[in-house]
Design goal:
The protein is α/β, with parallel strands linked by helices. Among the domains are: 163 residues; 161 residues, 3-Layer(aba) Sandwich (Rossmann fold); 177 residues, no CATH class; 88 residues, Leucine-rich repeat, LRR (right-handed beta-alpha superhelix) (Alpha-Beta Horseshoe), CATH 3.80.10.10; 105 residues, no CATH class. Helices cover 33% and strands 15% of the residues. Helix 25 links the parallel strand 18 and strand 19. It is globular, with a radius of gyration of 34 Å. Belongs to the disease resistance NB-LRR family.
Length: 1137
C-alpha cells in the first residue's frame, strides 16, 4: 500500500504538485523510522547496558578505593538514568504490543543484553502494517531517548564521577578569650610545625593549665586556612586537621592505638563494613595520608603511643602530629620539639578574671581580687569558676571569705590539684541539692567522653534528681535543659557541642577523690584496666559505669542498692548469666548500648523498678526477653538498631511508658523492593494502650513495603495518644498524614501551656524520599533547640502539610511536580523555619514569589510582609525550571538571618541574586553555586544610579564556591566595588569564562585562598589580575593518566574497558594541590619563557619554588629540566606537580 501511494506521489510531484511532494517526503521519513526501529532498539539496549557496566566498574573501584569517593555528578547521572530507564520500559512495552515480545533479560547483565540484541537485530522491519504510524512514532522517540541516554552514559567514567575524598574541616567549640600568652603558644607551635625536622610537637603542662584550649585554638585556625589569625603564617596549608581525644578508659596500648585509628578512619571516611586488625587499619591509614599535608592533634595523652602502629609514620614528609600531655616522661620519647604551657601570668590571670566577673571598682575589693586570682594557680577554668562565683558580689567580707577558703590547706588526696578542690567546692556548695546530684552523676563518664545532653537528662529524670511540678517527660527535658545551662554557665561542665557536654578532668578528679558529706551515695565506681570487680564492690556501689570495660562479670552479683548500670560498648559482652539481674530489684537505669549480646537473661524480669532500658545498636539482639511485661515501671525503652523484627504485644501493658524508640531491619530507600511476608511489625492496638506515651520513634525505612501495608492502622493507634510531644514517624502518603492530623488527640490537646506548639519535637517524612543531591539525605543544623523536621516527598495535595509546617524548623521538599514556589505553602506557615531543602521539583520556577505575599498576608504595616526571617540555611538542588530565588521586591527583614546558600543543578538560572536581594541577605556567610549551566553572573546589579554604595553588600560572606559554571562571566558587573570584608576563601572550578575576578574582589582584604584550575589562571589576559589578589593560590591541574600509580605501573584510564564499546574517552578530573607562598617563596606558572626568566634570576639558599606543570604542554619541558638542574645546585625545596 505504501509503495503504491509512493508511486502516485512521485508522479504527481513531477507535475509540480507541491503538497503531494511534501506528503511524499513525510511518508519517506516515517518509512525510514520504521525501518530503523529494531536498529534503534538494539542501540538503546546497548547504551543502557554500557551505562550499567560502567557504573558497576565505578562501584567496584569505589569499594576498593581508599582515597576516592563519589562526586555529586555520580548521583546526578544515576538519577537521570533512572528517569530514562523508566521511559525505556514504557517504549519496550509499546514495542511488544505493536510487534512481538522480547525475551526476558536483565539489562544490568551484559551477556543477557547481548543475546537480546542479537535477537532484535535479526528481525526484519514490519512496513506493511496498520500500526505503521505508531511504529514510526515509537522509533523516533526511541532514537531521541537514545541520544539522551548516550549523553548520560558517556559521563559515567571514573575520571568524571570520582574525586579525591573531601575531608570537611571541623570547628571545635571552646571558650575563646583573647590572651597574649595563648597566642604566643599557638605561634610557637606553628613555628615548629614549619620546620621540616619537627614532625611531632609536644604540648606539656599540668592538668587545667589550658593545653586543650591551645589545641582547640590551633585546630580552628589551621582547619581551613593557610594562615593563622594571630599573625604566624603556616608554610603549608594542611589538607586536613584531625582532632583526637585520647580515650582515658583505654589502658592497654592496643586499645589506645585502636581508639585513635577509629577516629582517624571515621574522619577520613575509611571505615569499611568488616572490622580489620590494627595492622591492616594502620596500612590503610598510612596509604591514604602518606603523601598528604596532614595534622593530627592528639589531646590528653596519658601513655606512650606508637604512632607507627596507628599509621602515622615519622617518614611521612608532609605529616605533622601535635600531642598534649601532663606527663613529661610519657610524651618526651614521642616528640621532636616541646612547648611547655605554664600557668597564666598575673596580668593574664587578672584579665581573664575581670572578663568573667566584670569590672571591680572598690580599691579594697580589687586588692582582695588580686590575692584570689593568685590563689587560683593560674589555671584558666578555676579562675573563671571563681570569677563567676563572685560575679555581682559587692560585699567585701564575702570576697575575703572566698580568699580565706582558697588559701586554706588542701587535703592530702588533692595535693596535686593545689587550689582546685577549694574552688570547686565553692561552686558546688552554692548549688541546689538537685543540681548537686545531677552534677555528680556526670562522673560516671570520663572527662574525654562526650555525653549526649538529651540522654543525660533522661538519666537525671529516671533517678528523680529533677524537681518537677508535673510528672511529664516534656517538663523534665525543659527542666534538664535549664540545669545543664546553669552548670555550664558556672564552668562546672563544658559544652563540647550544641548537643554534648563534658566534665573538666581536674573537676572530675576532685569529685571522685574528695568526700562530700551526705552525698556519698552519688559517687560512682568506674573500674580501670581489667581488674576484677569484687563482691564487695557490687554490693556497695550504687551507680556503676562499665563503659568499654573488660572486667569479667559475676554470674549472680548481689547489688541490692544499685540504681544505675552503664555497660555501653562492652564489646566482650556476648552473654549475661541467666541470673545476672536477680538481685538488682532497685535498678532504675540499664544501658547496654552497642553490646554484643544476642539475648537478655530471663532474670531481666526481676528488674521491677527499672525505668530506662537502652538496647540501641545491639545488632545481634533478635528478641526481647520473655515476661518483659513484668517491667511495669518502665518509662523509656530504646531498641533501635537491633535485629528485632516485631514489637511484642506485651509492650502495650507497660502503662508507665513515656518514651518508645524502635526500628526495623530496613532503613533507607527501597522504592523498587518487593514486599515480603513478614511478622506483624507492631501488633494492632499495642501503641494505643500506652496512655502516658509522650515520645514515639518508629524507624521503618523509606519505601518499606511491609511498613506501608500496616502504616494506616498504626497511624490510627498513634492518633489515640493524648500526651504525644515527640514523634519520629514515616507516613507513606498524604492520606495517612491527613488521617493523623484529623484524628490526633495530642495535636488537639490545648489544655497545657504548650497549646500553641503541641509537638515539642518531630521528624516526620511523607512519601519516598530517594534524594539525589550530593550533600547526603539529611542536612540539619537546628541546635541547640529541639529539632522539628518535616520531609515532604510525594506529589500529592499539600494542604494537610501546612499544619505541621507551621511548627517545623527544618523542611525538605523533594520531587513534588505541582509546586511552583514555596509560596504555594503560604509563607505565613513557615515563620519558624531555619533550614530548607528543595530538590527535584521540576516545575518550581522561583523559591519565593514576592507578588503572592500581599495576597496571602493581611498587610497593615511594612513589617507584616517580612517572611522567612528565621531561615539560616537554604539548599536548592536539581530544579530544572528555577529562574530566580525571589521573584519581585523583597521586604526588608526577609531572609535577614540566612547564613548558607547552596544551589546545585539549576539549568535555567542566569543570575543568583539581584542588588536588592544581596543587600537584604545581611547575614550570609557561605555561598555555593554548582552545575548551573546558564549562570552568567552571581549578582545582577541592575540599578541605574552610578553612585550607589555597594561597600556594605555581602560583608559577612566568608567562603564562595563556584563550580562547573561554563557561562559565568562575572561575579558582579558593577563598576563600584563590593565590600567582601570577611571573604577568606573563594573556589573557582570549571568556570573558564570568568574574567573580572580582580575587579569583583578588589576590596577582599582578608582573602587568603583562591582555589582554581591552572588552565584558567594562566590564561588571564592581564597580569594585573593576579597582582591585585593578595592571596595564597591552590592551583589545580589535569589529572595525568597514571595518577596515584608508581612509575611503570600500567593504567587503563586512557581506554574504555566497556565490554560493548572500545573507544569511549575518559573525562579529566581535577586534583587540588597546595601552593603556599611566603616571603621566601615564588610561585611559577605560565609559559616556558616565564619559567626561564624566573630561573635566570639569583636566589639565596632556602628559597622555595613551586612549579606546576601541565602534562599536555610540552613547551614547558625545557623549563622543567632547567628548574631541576638549577635547583640541584642550590638549597631548594622542589614541589613539582
Amino acid at each position: 500500500m505504501v509503495y503504491e501511494v509512493s508511486k502516485v506521489v512521485l508522479h504527481a510531484s513531477s507535475t509540480g504538485y507541491a503538497p503531494l511532494k511534501d506528503m511524499f517526503s513525510y511518508m519517506m521519513d516515517k518509512t525510514e523510522f520504521v525501518k530503523n526501529l529494531e536498529d534503534n532498539l538494539t542501540k538503546i539496549i546497548r547504551e543502557l547496558a554500557t551505562f550499567y557496566s560502567r557504573k558497576e566498574k565505578v562501584d567496584r573501584r569505589l569499594d576498593a578505593a581508599v582515597s576516592e569517593e563519589k562526586s555529586g555528578e555520580y548521583d546526578v547521572l544515576v538519577k537521570q538514568m533512572e528517569f530514562h530507564h523508566k521511559r525505556y520500559n514504557e517504549f519496550v512495552n509499546k514495542y511488544q504490543r505493536y510487534c512481538q515480545d522480547l525475551p526476558n533479560f536483565e539489562i544490568h547483565d551484559v551477556s543477557s543484553a547481548t543475546k537480546v540484541m542479537d535477537v532484535v537485530q535479526k528481525r526484519k522491519p514490519t512496513i506493511k502494517t496498520r500500526k505503521f504510524f505508531k511504529l514510526a512514532t515509537l522509533s523516533k522517540k526511541i532514537n531521541e531517548l537514545l541520544n539522551e541516554i548516550s549523553l548520560v552514559s558517556g559521563k559515567m567514567e571514573p575520571g568524571n564521577v570520582l574525586r579525591d575524598k573531601k575531608i570537611e574541616p571541623i570547628q571545635v567549640k571552646y571558650d575563646d578569650i583573647d590572651l597574649p600568652s595563648s597566642n604566643e603558644y599557638v605561634n610557637k607551635i606553628i613555628r615548629y610545625l614549619n620546620e621540616d625536622e619537627n614532625r611531632r610537637v609536644g604540648i606539656l603542662g599540668p592538668i587545667g593549665v589550658g593545653k586543650t584550649t591551645i589545641m582547640k585554638k590551633l585546630n580552628n585556625q589551621l582547619k581551613h586556612s593557610s594562615a593563622s589569625s594571630c599573625g604566624m603564617t603556616v608554610r603549608t596549608k594542611f589538607d586536613f586537621v584531625i582532632w583526637i581525644d585520647c580515650q582515658k578508659q583505654y589502658e592497654a596500648e592496643d586499645d589506645v592505638v585502636e581508639g585513635i585509628q577509629d577516629v582517624i578512619m571515621g574522619r577520613l571516611k575509611l571505615k569499611g563494613e568488616e572490622a580489620k586488625s590494627i595492622e591492616q587499619n594502620a596500612e590503610i591509614i598510612s596509604n591514604f595520608i602518606c603523601d598528604r599535608n596532614y595534622l593530627l592533634l592528639i589531646d590528653q595523652v596519658s601513655s606512650t603511643i606508637n604512632l607507627d602502629e596507628v599509621g602515622a609514620h615519622k617518614n611521612h614528609k608532609f605529616g605533622r602530629v601535635v600531642l598534649a600531655s601532663s606527663n613529661k616522661k610519657v610524651i618526651s620519647p614521642m616528640i621532636d620539639q616541646q612547648v611547655e604551657i605554664k600557668p597564666l601570668s598575673d596580668i593574664d590571670a587578672m584579665k581573664l578574671f575581670l572578663e568573667v566577673n566584670g569590672k571591680v571598682n572598690d580599691s579594697r575589693v580589687k586588692l582582695i581580687a588580686r590575692n584570689i586570682v593568685k590563689s587560683c594557680g593560674g589555671l584558666p577554668l578555676v579562675i573563671k569558676l571563681v570569677a563567676y562565683h563572685l560575679k555581682g558580689q559587692k560585699d567585701e567580707q564575702v570576697w575575703s571569705d572566698v580568699k580565706r577558703i582558697l588559701q586554706s590547706e588542701t587535703k592530702d588526696k588533692l595535693r596535686k590539684l593545689e587550689g582546685v578542690g577549694h574552688a570547686y567546692k565553692l561552686a558546688y556548695d552554692k548549688l541546689e541539692t538537685s543540681q548537686k546530684k545531677c552534677l555528680l552523676f556526670v562522673t560516671l563518664f570520663t572527662s574525654d567522653q562526650k555525653i549526649y545532653k538529651d540522654y543525660l537528662v533522661e538519666c537525671w529524670n529516671a533517678e528523680r534528681f529533677l524537681e518537677l511540678d508535673v510528672p511529664e517527660l516534656r517538663a523534665a527535658r525543659e527542666r534538664g535543659a535549664t540545669t545543664l545551662r546553669e552548670l555550664t554557665d558556672q564552668y562546672l561542665l563544658e559544652d563540647h557541642s550544641d548537643k554534648h557536654v563534658k566534665m573538666p578532668e581536674y573537676f572530675r578528679r576532685v569529685v571522685v577523690e574528695q568526700e562530700y558529706p551526705g552525698e556519698n551515695d552519688c559517687i560512682s565506681w568506674m573500674p580501670q584496666k581489667i581488674q576484677p570487680l569484687t563482691d564487695e564492690t557490687w554490693r556497695t556501689v550504687r551507680r556503676m559505669s562499665l563503659i568499654r570495660c573488660k572486667s569479667k562479670l559475676p554470674s549472680k552479683p548481689i547489688s541490692d542498692n544499685m540504681s544505675t548500670l552503664l555497660m555501653q560498648c562492652y564489646r566482650d559482652l556476648v552473654t549475661l548469666g541467666d541470673m545476672f539481674f536477680e538481685n538488682m530489684q532497685k535498678l532504675l537505669i540499664l544501658d547496654l548500648h552497642k553490646a554484643n549480646i544476642e539475648s537478655l537473661p530471663t532474670s531481666t524480669s526481676s528488674l521491677v523498678s527499672l525505668r530506662c532500658l537502652y538496647l540501641n545498636d545491639c545488632r545481634r539482639l533478635a528478641m526481647l526477653p520473655p515476661k518483659v511485661e513484668k517491667l511495669k515501671k518502665l518509662e523509656l525503652i530504646d531498641i533501635r538498631g537491633t535485629s528485632i523484627r516485631s514489637l511484642p504485644s506485651e509492650i502495650g501493658d507497660m502503662f508507665h511508658l513515656r518514651c518508645l524508640r524502635i526500628s526495623f531491619c530496613q532503613t533507607g530507600c527501597n522504592r523498587n523492593g518487593k514486599c515480603k511476608e513478614v511478622e506483624m511489625m507492631i501488633p494492632y492496638n499495642t501503641i494505643s494502650r500506652l496512655h502516658r506515651l509522650e515520645e514515639l520513634t518508629i524507624e521503618a525505612g523509606c519505601c518499606n513495603q511491609a511498613w506501608n501495608s500496616i502504616a494506616e492502622q498504626i497511624v490510627i493507634d498513634v492518633a489515640c495518644l493524648e500526651k504525644l510531644s515527640t514523634l519520629n514517624f514515616h507516613f507513606p502518603n498524604v492520606t495517612t498524614l491527613e488521617l493523623f492530623v484529623a484524628q490526633s488527640k495530642s495535636l488537639k490537646n490545648t489544655d497545657t501551656h504548650w497549646s500553641t506548639n503541641t509537638l515539642r519535637s518531630f521528624k516526620i517524612s511523607i512519601g519516598c524520599y530517594d534524594t539525589g543531591h550530593p550533600y547526603g539525605s539529611e542536612i540539619s543544623g537546628i541546635s541547640p533547640e529541639p529539632e522539628r523536621m518535616l520531609r515532604f516527598s510525594t506529589g500529592e495535595e499539600i494542604s494537610s502539610v501546612k499544619e505541621l509546617l507551621r511548627q517545623a524548623n527544618s523542611f525538605e521538599l523533594v520531587g513534588h511536580e505541582g509546586v511552583v514556589s514555596l509560596s504555594d505553602f503560604n509563607l505565613r506557615n513557615v515563620g519558624a523555619l531555619k533550614v530548607c531543602v528543595v530538590e527535584s521539583c521540576r516545575n518550581m520556577t522561583t523559591f519565593v514569589d514576592g507578588f503572592r505575599i500581599n495576597e496571602q498576608m493581611e498587610i497593615i504595616e511594612e513589617s507584616d510582609c517580612v517572611v522567612l526571617q528565621c531561615l539560616e540555611k537554604l539548599y536548592l538542588f536539581e530544579l530544572q525550571r528555577l529562574q530566580s530565588i525571589w521573584n519581585g521586591s523583597v521586604c526588608l527583614g526577609s531572609l535577614a538571618n540566612l547564613k548558607e546558600l547552596t544551589l546545585f543543578g539549576c539549568p535555567e538560572l542566569t543570575t543568583i541574586l539581584n542588588h536588592e536581594q544581596a543587600t537584604t541577605l545581611s547575614s550570609l556567610e557561605y555561598v555555593k553555586v554548582e552545575n548551573c549551566s546558564e549562570v552568567v553572573e552571581i549578582i545582577n546589579d541592575n540599578i541605574a544610579a552610578d553612585n550607589v554604595d555597594l561597600s556594605n553588600m555581602l560583608n559577612k560572606v566568608k567562603t564562595v564556591d563556584l563550580v562547573d559554571l561554563p557561562k559565568l562571566r562575572s561575579i558582579c558587573k558593577t563598576t563600584t566595588s563590593m565590600g567582601w570584608r570577611s571573604l577568606v576563601k573563594i573556589a573557582i572550578i570549571s568556570c573558564n569564562g570568568l574574567r573580572d575576578i580582580h575587579l569583583s574582589l578588589r576590596n577582599a582584604d582578608k582573602l587568603e585562598t583562591v582555589e582554581c584550575e591552572e588552565s584558567w589562571w594562566i590564561q588571564f589576559p592581564e597580569e594585573q589580575n593576579k597582582k591585585n589578589l593578595p592571596c595564597h593560590f591552590i592551583v589545580t591541574k589535569q589529572e595525568s593518566a597514571n595518577q596515584g600509580r608508581h612509575v611503570g605501573e600500567s593504567s587503563d584510564h586512557g581506554r574504555s574497558t566497556d565490554p560493548l564499546t572500545s573507544n569511549a574517552s575518559v573525562s579529566n578530573k581535577y586534583n587540588g594541590t597546595v601552593m603556599p607562598r611566603n616571603e621566601n617563596e615564588q610561585f611559577i606558572s605560565g609559559t616556558s619563557s616565564g619559567l626561564h626568566d624566573m630561573l635566570k634570576s639569583s636566589h639565596g639558599p632556602g628559597h622555595v619554588i613551586h612549579h606546576s606543570t601541565n602534562t599536555d604542554a610540552p613547551a614547558n619541558e625545557e623549563a622543567s629540566s632547567l628548574l631541576v638542574e638549577k635547583c640541584s645546585k642550590l638549597d631548594f625545596s622542589i614541589s613539582s606537580h
